[in-house]
Specification:
83 residues; mainly alpha; 95% helix
Length: 83
């Protein structure tokens, strides 16, 4: 039978090996999770920029239509005052 001291050391070495393997797995999973969060963050930022850009474009187009309507109303008003 093996010496009890050697048996304890053997079990502790096995435990250390398992813990190191688990630690590597946790590190890999954490890196993958961080990469995914970065990807989601980038996508959200792109969507935010796109939405903001479209709203600015929409406001610009609406402003241009408003200016044209004001010009038409002014011309109509001028015609009404002449006639």
């Amino acid at each position: 039978m093996a010496d009890p001291e050697n048996q304890t050391l053997h079990v502790l070495r096995d435990i250390r090996t398992v813990i190191e393997a688990l630690s590597r797995n946790v590190d890999q999973n954490q890196a993958e999770t961080n990469r995914r969060f970065d990807d989601v963050t980038d996508r959200i930022e792109k969507i935010r920029k796109l939405a903001f850009g479209e709203s600015v474009l929409g406001r610009y187009a609406a402003g241009e239509v408003e200016e044209r309507l004001d010009a038409i109303e002014q011309r109509l008003s001028d015609l009404e005052t002449r006639g």
